[in-house]
Amino acid sequence: MKRCLSAVLLFLMALWTPAAAFAESSHLTIEGGGANEYDYQEYVFLSGKPILFTGTFKVTVSSSGDTTTTKITYTLKDKDTGLDKLSRSLTFLEKKADQPEMGQTVRTSQVDKFSESATINDVKYQLVDYRQSKSVVIDKHPAVNYYSGNWEGRKIYQVEKDQGRLTVDISGTTVGYDHNWGRSETQRMTQTLSYEPLKETVTGNTPSINWDGQVDYTINLSTDREMSYHENEPVDISFSGGYLLDEEGSTAVLARYDLPYASSDGTITKNSRRDQDTLSLNLKTAPKVQRLYVPAYQDTRGHWAEADIARLAGVKAWGNATGYFGPGQPITRMDFATAFVNALGILSTDGPAGNIAYTAGYPNLPEPGQKSTGSRSGGTGYNGATGIPRNKKVPPEQPPFSDISPQKPGYAEVKAAFESNLMQGVSPSRFDPYGLMTREQAATLIVRGLGLETLAPSGSVYLPYYDDGQISPWARDSIYVAQRLGILSGDAYGAFRPQDLLSRAEAASLLMKSIDFLQRDLKRDYRDRLLNLH
User: Fold this and answer.
1) pLDDT in tens, 284-325
2) How far apart are alpha carbons 452 and 478 in whole angstroms?
3) How far is CA 416 from CA 79, 102, 353, 440, in A?
4) Where are the alpha helices (H) located in 375-471, listed in sequence order?
5) TM segments (predicted)?
6) How far apart, in whole angstroms, are the C-alpha atoms of residue 511 and residue 6?
7) Comparing C-alpha atoms, which of 62, 109, 53, 106 is closest to residue 81?
8) Tens-digit pLDDT profile for residues 82-128
9) Tally of CA atoms within 13 A in the half-sphere of 459 that contains its CB
10) pLDDT tens digits, 48-88
11) Is residue 266 classed exposed, middle or buried when 0-12, 13-18 and 19+ CB atoms within 10 A define those classes?
């Protein structure tokens, strides 16, 4: 299988393959550049002076078994004059190793082939050696994938044939997450440059002295998804307004450099005189918008949870969007599973579902409540926002529980929740779809879905509620995390009411707070804090 993907459809490639469609660390930014659908931009420091290059690139991906080959070619020139040129071709080989019982995958890559040639200020730089090793571990959870990685490398350039040599040592780290409401990856990279002339007398503009420098990069790639309410102006209209889903990709690059001072003609005459500054690049994709379905419930107007109920109805979390919602009624296990899967999404082992396009290097987020009619290369299609694999030839369905049949509405979501280890049955053969949920059960499921159980301290957990003694031991850690994240807390009287049944309105509020956490709090932690945007 082989695919050539143009820069218009694929930028800041996150090493996408059919076997690993979830967002992962991008190889394209390994050179310190950024892109959107139209442009690639990169500050080049080979001459000891920062020069902004722009241009195009193309990515080719092929896979065989557990090995993926990614080739990226760049054609660039300096933005100011267009006289300086750079062409680069890099091929990465990557292998993956799955640890299913731990829900983790380790992906290790290295440079397989390379070529790079640049002409800057009439001096030619030819890459003669490039070694790089990169490894990323992905920790998979029902609603979120988290990942972290490191890489080390070295590039050696021949300068004006045999007149000089430039060595660039590279060290980097990455951390990121991926869920159906957004993605973010922040890379930190340090490039240490060391130049030495190889001849006593050099010609032209070739540097004649030893010099060294350092560039520290912070790079963020994100895809953001936000819901906003838009009121209709006419008075005589069947619905007063509705929610709009807005999706946008962005890339931010900060490059802090410490280099020898170069004169206006680019000549370096003294290494001890330094030039220090910070450069930045910011690129955004064209926004993608989608109006959400507008519910017509007769019993939610003016209810304290009306907005949360409506937003979730827009992504088909509740099934029927007309008639009576029953906000005060307790929610069943099946309805909670359906709402969770359709609202937060369950990531399959192949990653989020949806039509494949690209923002910030990652596939677009799945269409909420929609089903993909096509199939990805590799022969597998995917259902809606749940990421559930859907084969062209569907084998006979084997229900995981005896009390919910494949024909029953909500079956697919219950099965997804079970197979992702989000929810279990009340016995090996029974799910109890019409059983009711308590507040402490709901807190446990939400925190489990987010994969953040380990945020609770070890040992006995202090909970600031009057009815602390009524909280089940197995729920204490999750309740601690839920209240820390602002997803679920006690009432106005200081009680958590762990054994109380969760109402459908409370479930709507809980799920929307979870989505808000994924959209905003995670982004602040992974992007804004690491980029010092506060």
Assistant:
1) 988 888 888 899 999 999 999 999 999 999 888 887 778 899
2) 8
3) 50, 18, 13, 22
4) 411-419, 439-450
5) none
6) 38
7) 53
8) 999 999 999 999 999 989 889 899 999 999 999 999 999 999 999 99
9) 1
10) 999 999 998 888 888 888 888 988 999 999 999 999 999 99
11) middle
Rounded Cα distance, 337 and 327, in Å: 17
Distance CA 449, CA 487 (A): 13
What tens digit of pLDDT does each residue of 131-189 get? 999 999 999 999 999 999 999 999 999 999 889 999 999 999 999 998 888 888 999 99
List all residues 6 or more positions away from 464 whose beta carbon is below 8 Å from its beta carbon: 490, 494
Indicate the SS3 state at residue 427: coil
Distance of CA 454 to the CA centre of its chain: 21
H or E segment and range at residue 144: strand 144-159
Q: Reduced to 3 states, what is the DSSP secondary structure of residue 288?
A: strand
Q: Token pair for residue 476? A: 């204490």
CB-hemisphere CA count at 13 Å for 127? 18
Beta strands in 377-510 (DSSP E): 380-383, 388-391
- Of 63, 58, 49, 94, which is closest to residue 1 (Cα–Cα)? 63
Tokens of 128: 């003669």
| Contact between residue 410 and residue 342 where contact means Cβ atoms under 8 Å apart | no
Beta carbons within 8 Å of 4's beta carbon, 6+ residues apart: 58, 60
> Which percentage of the chain shows pLDDT scores above 70?
85
Cβ atoms of residues 449 and 344 within 8 Å: yes
3-state secondary structure of 467: coil
Query: H or E stretch including 481?
Result: helix 476-484
**DSSP secondary structure of 298-363:** SS-TT-TTHHHHHHHHHTT-SS--EE---TTSBPBHHHHHHHHHHHT---BTTB--S---EETTEE
DSSP E strands, 464-523:
none
Binning the chain into helix, strand and coil, the percentages to the nearest 5 are 20, 40, 40
Distance between CA atoms of residues 320 and 452, nearest Å: 31
Give me the residue label for tokens 């469609």.
Answer: 21
Question: Which helix (DSSP H) or strand (DSSP E) does residue 483 occupy?
Answer: helix 476-484
